[in-house]
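User: I've been going back and forth on whether these two constructs are worth ordering. Before I decide, could you fold them both?

Assistant: Sure. I'll take them in the order you sent them. The first construct and its structure tokens:
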Amino acid sequence: MKLFLDTAVYEEIKAGVDWGVIDGVTTNPTLIAKAGHDHEEQVKKICQIIGNVSAEVVSETKDDMIVEGKRLASWHPNVIVKVPMTPDGLAAGKALAASGIRINVTLCFSVNQALLAAAIGAYIVSPFAGRLDDINEDGMRVVADIVSAYRQQSIKTKVLAASIRTPMHVTQAALAGADISTLPFAVLKALFNHPLTEAGQKRFLEDYRKTQEPQKVKA
């Protein structure tokens, strides 16, 4: 399972790239506005250091989404155009996909919706696990069911587990068979953490320093 960052903060993305653990970014105008940047400039900047950058349309009608989607895709080859799971969003996504643009269908909450995304030739479908959990549904069960349905039907659309809230969500997404999990920077950092790793590293360093002490005395 590939890991994406769900952020528009360049410094967070750069850190993930430097660690060598992320393969893409999911963002939207809201995240970019929160980061205090111009949409186009920030997307282009992010695309310079990482591939697979989802940029979301904000138009509401099919024709407007097609125009906007083409504009977003023109910013950089790494851009994946994100469209909503609505009739107009899917119609626009189908037209954009037919022109060779990679499409990420967002705001997916069911297997049936995921099948619609696959029907238009979407590159990615994004089920929102955390938001399903918020209304007392099993978000990761839906992710697993989408993965199962796609495999049964030999569908190539990639399943991206979105609305990830905790490290456990990441584990569950991987076990569910998701192709991608997109997560906040704080969750990515938390994946590194385990008390035994910290304790083991501390012990190794202490033991190493002890082996150097006699050499220092001789010197």
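The second construct, handled the same way:
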Amino acid sequence: MNLASLLPLEWRRQRALRRAPAGPLHEYLQHPFPDRNQDYRQARYLAIDLETSGLDPKRDHILSIGCVEISANAIELGSARHIIVSSDQTLSEDSVVIHRLTDDVIAEGESVAAALTDLLRQLAGKVLLAHHATMDVGFLRRACQRVFAGNLLVPVVDTLALAQQQSARRNEIVGGGGLRLGALRERYHLPRYQAHNALSDAVAAAELFLAQAAERAGDEPHYALKRLLLKS
């Protein structure tokens, strides 16, 4: 086990800031992370979703990034962005069928460096929110290491982990598909969106989070952000 991972995330941010080379990642790390003890409704979040060429961050790459901000416990649709990331690798037919991003579309996208720079600027000082966040964060960390020669540190809320915790408390056994984003949204009577589009999935995760958090907090006037964060 890496002993540094046992230290508070904010302390690790300050440590990483001292070591990070000048550039977008250094600028991102200059912003303190949200206070873990504040009420979760006071924190700011960036809901994200990635479409990738596969499931392995070491071998596969990011094809598109969707993101939208949550502030004052509301989704700010005006902040929504959908970034196509260029790649010189030929996509497999199976990959294209899933995300519908063809080689021609990808070729016209932004460079991964430009896409990450934009994302880090929007993510600074916020909590990263995603469904199955470990996958997305894994790809982002790998990309930051490759492009900026540094490690991405970020507080994370994972709507999948929140659902798993809720099921465990209720002693529920959920089938394989029951924890997918669309299936969980049905539990809260949220509308159906097109799947495997990074922007619509980011908005879908944001809406799901607001429903999950409201259910967990109930009538409590103060529900600490740390009770929702993924352990890192």
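Notes on the second construct follow. Strands lie at 45-52, 62-71, 74-84, 127-130, 156-158. The longest strand covers residues 74-84.
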